[in-house]
Design a protein that fits this description.
Strand content: under 5%
Shape: rod-shaped
Structural class: mainly alpha
Largest sheet: none
Distance between the termini: 166 Å
Order of helices and strands: HHHHHH
Length: 219
């Protein structure tokens, strides 16, 4: 009797379990399909790829702008350096020319210096000798000495940069003296001969030129 009761209870429990399982099976939510997960993953990967491409494009654009700025700066720097180089070349040429002139010195006077001119030296001695050769006396050389002391200090390289006058007599322009020799830039005698000829034609005598210079500050 007791065995039959126990068996009946077990059957009841088993039937209740089966019924509960069927109920839970009906209420369980549907499973997500694997296809939907794959599509979402591919979409995410595609968006990540697009984001990276946009970043790379922006980086290339920034690099292109930077390269352009660097090239423009380099061009400007090169142009400035080229200008400095040209100026430097001009300065070097001018310095070399000046050094050559300084080292070469004036052309030596080949003529005789009379004893009456012994109190003078250098270009003044040459001027004294050529003044006498031109037919003027020592009194006229005294005036010429004062005139060219004032004009150039008897410096055969004296140059007035504002007017262009050059040499001992301050010829304006200097190349007028080429009529007495192609060496007019470095030969005191050539300059003096031209100056005496100019004075003789315009003022008759060195003293006439000196008096004009005293009155008008030029001759």
């Amino acid at each position: 009797m007791i065995r039959n009761v126990i068996r009946g209870a077990a059957v009841v429990v088993l039937l209740a379990g089966l019924a509960g399982g069927a109920y839970l099976g009906e209420k369980r939510p549907p499973q997500t399909t694997p296809v939907l997960d794959v599509v979402q993953a591919e979409a995410a990967d595609m968006q990540l790829l697009k984001d990276r491409q946009n970043e790379h494009a922006a980086a290339r654009a920034r690099w292109t702008v930077a390269e352009g700025n660097a090239a423009a700066k380099a061009k400007t720097t090169a142009k400035t350096a080229s200008g400095y180089a040209k100026d430097l070349d001009k300065s070097v040429v001018a310095a070399k020319k000046a050094a050559q002139q300084a080292s070469s010195g004036p052309v030596a006077f080949a003529g005789p210096i009379p004893s009456s001119c012994n109190e003078f030296s250098g270009s003044r001695a040459v001027g004294c000798a050529l003044t006498l050769s031109a037919g003027f006396g020592l009194d006229q050389f005294a005036c010429l000495n004062k005139l060219w002391n004032k004009e150039s200090g008897w410096n055969y390289r004296a140059e007035n940069r504002s007017s262009g006058a050059y040499g001992i007599p301050q010829s304006l322009p200097g190349n007028k003296m080429a009529a007495f020799g192609s060496d007019w830039k470095t030969n005191p005698a050539t300059q003096i001969k031209w100056g005496l000829d100019y004075i003789k034609k315009r003022y008759d005598t060195p003293c006439g030129a000196w008096n004009h210079s005293v009155q008008y500050n030029n001759y």
